[in-house]
Amino acid sequence: MMNKQGKIYIAGHRGLVGSALFRKLKSEGYENIITSTHRELDLTDQRAVEDFFNKSKPDYVFLAAAKVGGIGANSTYPAEFLYQNMMIGYNVVNASYKNKVKKLLNLGSSCIYPKLAPQPLKEEYLLTGSLEPTNDAYAIAKIAVIKLCSYYNRQYGTNYISVMPTNLYGPEDTYDTENGHVLPAMIRKFHEAKMMGKDGVTLWGDGSPYREFLYSEDLADAVVFLMEHRSAADIGEFVNIGTGSDLCIRELADIIKKIVYADVPGRTCSIEWDTSKPNGTPRKLLDISRLHAMGWKAKTSLIEGIEKAYSAFIESEKSNGVLP
Question: Who contacts 86 (Cβ-Cβ below 8 Å, separation ≥6)?
């Protein structure tokens, strides 16, 4: 159990995951939350991170900061994805150890699993095969931080938990059509097509890969639950967090199109699939039986979550002056 009066540091509090965590912790009565923007603290700078921890002395740490992106960004900037994510994770974990942080939760990604691992993906499948080439740099960095947490627990008796969420979406997402993840990128593409009166959109790949999606507020609920009720000894090296169901990208596109065009009856939008672009891993469905046995299940359906994500996108566009 976390002490309500304890100092909690959220690394990456402005991002998709970190912002959801911030809202969840506040709603649960945690008031002593420490944050830092990138301008205030460069998490890839070891000395700066150690100075920050020496001054702030957090009791609990949520490591949600990362350089993230979709297939396009991962393929274009592999060196940055490997270096920055490795440094962020290593600096925060080591500074936590040096400053006697009571408990740390490290967020990974389902892309760490081998490209052709059996489905659904069980925790023990880690490092049993080759990674997906389009995001292996990011995956290697995330695996390295998971291992670091595990080895600190073994060698130093720390209580560092790693979790492996499936594909995430929700408020504060990056709705970038070139470098963003598939779901928020689709929301923007369909929305812009609707606003500009276009008859169609072009999407990457052939739409055949299957993906599982988890609403960010559900992830926040899961990780706070684990921090409050489970230890590293209960969890082992890491535990999957997901919904236990997936759908193909073509189905996802149809759902998003229907939600985006719900307010303009009679109008629609055709979809062209650009098969010159990569599909990525054929399927990434997580086995979540261990998490269910610990007492947690996702609450938000995919349609409900996408409706909320689209509403958040509209509000973001309004606040940025893009929409009236």
Answer: 140, 141, 144, 145
